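hey so i finally got around to running both of the ones u sent me last week. sorry it took forever, my laptop kept dying halfway thru and i had to restart like 3 times lol. anyway pasting them below in the order u listed, first the sequence line then the structure token line for each. didnt double check formatting much so if smth looks off just lmk and ill redo it

first one:
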Amino acid sequence: MKAYVFPGQGSQFVGMGKELYDSSPRAKELFERANEILGFKITKVMFEGTDEELKQTNVTQPAVFLHSTILADSIADFKADMVAGHSLGEFSALVANRTLSFEDGLTLVSKRAFAMQKACEAERSTMAAVLSLEDQVVEDICAQIDGIVVAANYNCPGQLVISGAYAAVEEACAKMTEAGARRALILPVGGAFHSPLMEPAREELQAAIEATTFSNPNCPVYQNVVASAVTSPEEIQANLIAQLTAPVRWTQSVQQMIADGASSFTEIGPGKVLQGLVKKIDREMITEGMS
């Protein structure tokens, strides 16, 4: 069984999508439609902007989404047995399996990006990568800290990202190092994604998601929140709303996809991060990418 996976924020690069835009009339049409929907020329930033411009959350998220979904659209006779996306990538996966239309997916991603950016500005917060500690140890240390800090991204065994208020994350990093972490490093991100500090963004996005039509998918999506196959439009909606404040259970999602019969993983979108994570979860798994 073939699994398609879609990357999230952080995989962007200047020039992304330009070759596709130049070589495919259909891709050019979708990119131009995106410019109209967003109300600014995101293609200009994607193709010839600076790294700093592309790193702005309100640009990054729709840019990665566009690259991934338009790439998937360009595959002749695209047929997946299962799909999944890492955080933001879940929206790309839901367009690929026809749960969401391209236009609705882009609109939600744009609203999500602005809502998250606003939530980040409300309180000084951050995320940190923790390497070479068991998940349970990381979770236990977070629970001991006086302040908001939680496990946010279960990327692969021995690689977990924590998220929360800046001082709490700093304290947690120190304790992780004491507990034997090879590294506990604060990341250069805008705020505490996938933590309770994203609650204002979750509330803002909930209304938009509930007002959007979700169709029956043509294959299951393995959602971050539950790490299992979902096909009910109502469940997909609920999980997508919960995603902003809940952890990304990527390790568990990939493990479940393999248990359900996935024999290969194709990453669609910028970068190769998910291919690397899949290999760390199961080194025997076949991986490839389209970027």
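and the second one:
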Amino acid sequence: MVNSLLRKIEGIVIRSIDYGESNKIITIYSQETGKIGLMARGAKKTNSRLSSISQLFTYGHFLYRSSKGLGTLTQGEIISSFRSIREDLFKTAYSAYIVELLDKLTEDKQPSASLFSLLYNTLHYINDDYDAEVLTFIFETKMLYVAGIAPQLDVCASCNQRRDRYLAFSVKEGGFLCSQCLQADRHSIKVSEATQKLLRLFMTLDLKRLGKISLKQETRAEIKEVLENYYETHSGLYLKSKRFLSQLDKFD
């Protein structure tokens, strides 16, 4: 009877918080279960067999005892600790934002193979020294679909017509504006053709096929402005990791 309650999943720790003197409550995102919370008893103790498996960003196999409420982690086996992320402040900051964004925009126990793949590949590439900022842009763009607030990128957000050229992005209207509709939002953000192409690419890109992406500083600035303003206006999220990342960027 006890064995029937034991379950094994392969996942990534996206949140780890201290609980009491020696315990941790961890949140794992797995392909099998989606997001799930587990109690890791004694994990705060350095000699605990659950200490390393309960660290943020850890990718591994987790054996847990399920229940109606919070499950209990019984043992785990690390596949990857994403060590390079842990040893670099900037990589840690970007990765912390990525996992917090996923945590805030997903419900418990709603499996998604594509989301798990997105999470794993994003962390994997950051760990392997790919451009963390660009990877974060891609992750943010794709998560707009998950949040149900994806902007309109194929036609003008105001007149709903497909144009050869767009001049700006409107946070208010939720997409690009053509030359005839610029008056629809006087606070629209001017965006280059490169930025427009990249935002469309980020929406559909299979991250497994990611090559080296080199972005001009002006293009980075435009994409960052679009995504930050769009999330701020439409998502209702306040993320501590985002605030820290913004502060860190000033010293980059």
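quick thing i noticed on the 2nd:
The chain is about 35% helix and 20% strand.
anyway thats it, ttyl
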